[in-house]
Design goal:
4 copies of one chain form a homotetramer. Chain A has about 350 residues and is α/β, with parallel strands linked by helices. In chain A, about 30% of the residues lie in helices and about 15% in strands. Chain A has 2 domains: about 1-65, Alpha-Beta Plaits; about 85-345, TIM Barrel (Alpha-Beta Barrel), CATH 3.20.20. In chain A, strands 7-8-9-10-11-12-13-14 form an 8-stranded parallel β-barrel, surrounded by 7 helices. Chain A is elongated, with a radius of gyration of 23 Å. At the C-D interface, helix 2, helix 6 and helix 7 of C face helix 2, helix 6 and helix 7 of D.
Chain lengths: ~350, ~350, ~350, ~350
């Protein structure tokens, strides 16, 4: 921690700061600059030491030297983490974060048995490896479709089993974590809940992997701190998902921040995937942004696919229809190879 | 709803859109422009009608004519709502949203009995009317102080009673709503939970008023939709609180969006208060922004005050000490009068 | 300057950095932390020293200790600057930045003699002190009204003289600085040109005061650096103007960042005024935000007023009509008094 | 244009709006909804018709139906435009916007003859096709290196000629357009000048192509309107360049908005390239984002390369050294092929 003193800090104020640092257990090193005094504080980070120092009247600012995240940092664990979804290798699970690029796909919401089974089959046929489908939907308006809840989870699990695909679904309430974990192979924390700390702690205490979406206005550091919440509770199986941030640009629904992919890969050992559907809000931009995501270094994709988008109960405009999903995979294959990764298509897997 | 067709829309595509509108129960009116066809759809808004139309290939865009919020809109209820905190008039409650400007103040977190009681006394003495204090704290890092939970609520309630001040505290988990409602007079939904829909629904089913903070990256429309969630469940006692939005400017912690105050007052009948402490992140800017908030038309303030900010377990840098809080109230009084409002200082109220 | 070394920096890499610092003329102080090495560099700031250090492979980051602005900083000049518009005190000029709150008002664009003279008279009558009117208009579209150029300046100067009001107008091209300086008392640099460095340098070499608007996406630091450009060329008569920044919120045209007012007053000795018209984009929000601006500590206002907004060639929706401008001044008077400032109404001044 | 009337609009107010529309030369069509009246206005867009209508008291809002840009729109010209840099095909010019991906590279600033010649040779050798180098530098601080001006242009032109590479350099002042056009093959308008309309008009009247960077806080629509300024003056040779927008995220210098690439390609016929160096601010992220840019559909790249970044007078931290530029091209080749484009390496071209 570096403490920059004000220009007019008096000697007694300086001594107060040094005393405070000693009380906190820090050693201090004084650097007398041309204009200012700067103090280097050395020692283990203390509970809100930065905040306490910032309240002292002669302190101009306090600059932290270290990242606030630990367990998720690459400094803590230099090699890439691989998160297995739907069981380990022997169990036919899907590895996220290794050589392979994993495409997760499916409708925004599970609507009925026919819809989700049809989606599962077409996704399987085109090369998707994990089936997505929402049962608990966070919707901006209380008057729109809110999802089928547990019934939706049942239908999703059933469709996944039939097609031989592990399934992922969102959980929005700590009370529902157990039921979502019962039916799914991967629990999604949505963008709006990235700092729902009660929910993060709760999924940190289960044994299933978690897909943590970046919040609409969350910095990369806050995103990694949210992952740290989950890992600190004991669940290290976290996959990060970039899905667009909120900016002034309104032509696309959000602004997909692909530079977050290499940055997160640099700072953390966790796998990162990208959701081009929610990021852009329109099917037309999904294919180019999916390719760009893989080129930027992402470990996989989360894509909205609906058997008949025009009939979707939510997010129809951003959903790919079967033909467009096929085309996405087809154009993805050469890009995956170009960046030296692999795309195992699910239809070649034992169901 | 206005449907703008693409330049090259064919007649049969136009007929498909009209047919779709009829299926949805809309009447349609065709406007043939110089370049484009535009369709006006008349009728009651249907579940995701906009989304379905946007998936049709010949549709360029769909422009909604009406606001998505209803119960919280001023069109629904033209007169200002007054929310009573701590009981009705006869019970000595505090009205928020009427002639009176209400100052809510207290520490970020309840730390111990002495701290919160000392805070309560000084706030009462200076003119605060409602005591705030966090017991369940949403913190970016899992390694910082997370609050005293129910013990904190007990201490807060006790301090409020002794000082004769109603109390407000944050709830972050649907499971905790009942216990927070038991000890407090006003339940706060924090910025990070503004779209925690499970939590919104839950506080919509209690009989205590709710303080709904605007999310860091939430539009005014989303904020009002979040209030709509609470009101739609049956609890119309909602106070809105502007607390800064996230922008590119990093000198202040957030950017206080004071123009949201007159905008929300125009769109909605709900009271609006302002939190200059979280918005700016530094005590130095709290006083000028508090005055500006009242000048912009806010119904009250939520201010962080700590008996000894340098010892605060959280948010010390943005907390006012007793002398600065006194000075805030002192400079506030003439501004309140200048805008034709009243400031009833709590020390003149029966405890 | 503080240099944070990477975790795995070797001794020879450390020595290279120290050598580089010595070459740049810095003294260096080593702080050996628990995990990392940190180097404090002491000496006069060198040309892009920070950038050079950041390219060194073992350097994690470089933290500057000092603000990059000098001449405009309050550390350089502790007392408030007062900028006189239209001559000094003896010449009947208007002081901006002293006790007095100054209202500058007028139409977005000078349209014809009748319009600007009518505007000047009504502004004078209501209490405005400086007349604004655009002659060179920066417009998003090449197909909209671009202003009357020099003819507009002549009409503006004539109207100002008749009414006894100094005038302000925007300059958007370095080539036009002389002609704008010839006709006006204050030259405005608009938001889109805040980092038009050729233009900044050019107005830095004239003897008339400059009104520098904050850029749509400019940080406070960049804004002060733009002022530094002007002052560094020799013209210290700079008035800053906050006019809203670009954020995700689209209900208002921009987001008025009133917290910038006390922040800039803290960092700099220059006067700061606020433009609530461009910030909000709608006349309805101008009055509350004008009051809030003064309560936040601003030294004045820049307000769009048009004799007949419905006939305005630009920015009609955000212009006040005469009655609304009257009402603005009327409600402003008590707020100005409440914050201990003065409002000298121009009609009481000798023309 | 669609005019949405207020809920309480009276019949006489409605008639006023219709009368106004007739005066503007519009035909009007009334749509009587369940709650509101909506008017469809048909006819050629009039000067600020939208603004005039919005000032009318009974008008809630006005929704434009058409894009404001014309000449640069794909509706105006459906096929892709190809901009030739350094002469036409016969003259050995470089086509931007066709099948070929074009890499423009070079140092941020021309520093001296040796540096720019060395840069030119290495860029040529690695496969760059156009040489960049700044001579007029827009710098945030007046105290940092501002470029060598005309001397820099001479050195750049000389280096380009020796290496057989066309050159691009920035112009920041209308007065300098002629001299920059004299020495360069492509004139760059930087992000800070995207709405410097005097400059846009000036480069619209020359016969050399223009590289128009997107402003830090400019919407896609404003960017296309800036291009429209140039094209409307007669110069249709415009290449667009996405270089990152300003958001709340500070880990990267800006947020590269790659979704702008397919969006602009959809809305406009102009070529689009991407600058990953300025977007990210650090060499480490340049390679992944360059690959992602091409995968998203960009027609080329603008990359900062310096023979010795640690000695660069500006932007060293984001510059690639020769080995890293080599590696960039090497990893780019398979991605270019994967998306069905070509990469003609300059060393295989006749100089």
């Amino acid at each position: 921690m570096i403490i920059v003193m004000k220009l007019d800090a008096s000697d007694s104020q300086l001594m107060e700061v040094c005393q405070q640092l000693e009380n906190m257990g820090y050693q201090h090193h004084l650097i007398r600059g041309v204009e200012r005094l700067v103090i280097g504080a050395v020692g283990e980070a203390k509970l809100n030491g930065k905040e306490i120092l910032e309240t002292m009247p002669a302190v101009e600012k306090v600059l932290p030297v270290r990242h606030p995240f630990k367990l998720v940092s690459r400094e803590f664990k230099p090699e890439d983490s691989v998160v297995w979804v739907g069981g380990n290798k022997e169990m036919g699970g899907i590895p996220v974060g290794g050589e392979e690029i994993v495409v997760m796909a499916g409708p925004c919401a599970v609507e009925n048995r026919e819809q989700i089974q049809s989606a599962a089959q077409l996704i399987k046929a085109s090369g998707g490896r994990i089936l997505r489908g929402g049962a608990f939907k966070p919707r901006t308006s209380p008057y729109t479709f809110q999802g089928l809840a547990e019934k939706g989870l049942q239908l999703l699990a059933e469709a996944g089993q039939k097609a031989g695909l592990p399934v992922v679904s969102e959980v929005i309430n700590p009370e529902d974590v157990d039921v979502v974990a019962q039916y799914t192979d991967l629990l999604q924390i949505g963008a709006r809940n990235m700092q729902n700390f009660a929910l993060l702690r709760r999924v940190g205490r289960i044994s299933k992997p978690v897909l943590l979406k970046r919040g609409l206005a969350s910095t990369i550091e806050e995103w990694l701190m949210a992952a740290e919440y989950i890992v600190a509770e004991g669940n290290s199986q976290v996959i990060l998902c970039e899905r667009g941030i909120r900016t002034f640009e309104t032509y696309t629904r959000n602004t997909l921040d692909l530079s977050a992919v290499p940055v997160v890969k640099h700072l953390s050992h966790l796998p990162v995937i990208v959701d081009p559907s929610h990021a852009t809000g329109k099917w037309r931009w999904v294919q180019p942004m999916a390719l760009a995501a893989i080129a930027s270094g992402a470990d996989g994709l989360l894509v909205e696919v609906h058997p008949d988008p025009a009939k979707a109960l939510s997010d129809g405009p951003q959903s790919l229809n079967p033909a467009k999903f096929d085309r996405l995979i087809e154009t993805l294959i050469p890009v995956v190879k170009a960046v030296g990764r692999e795309l195992n298509l699910s239809q070649q897997q034992p169901a």
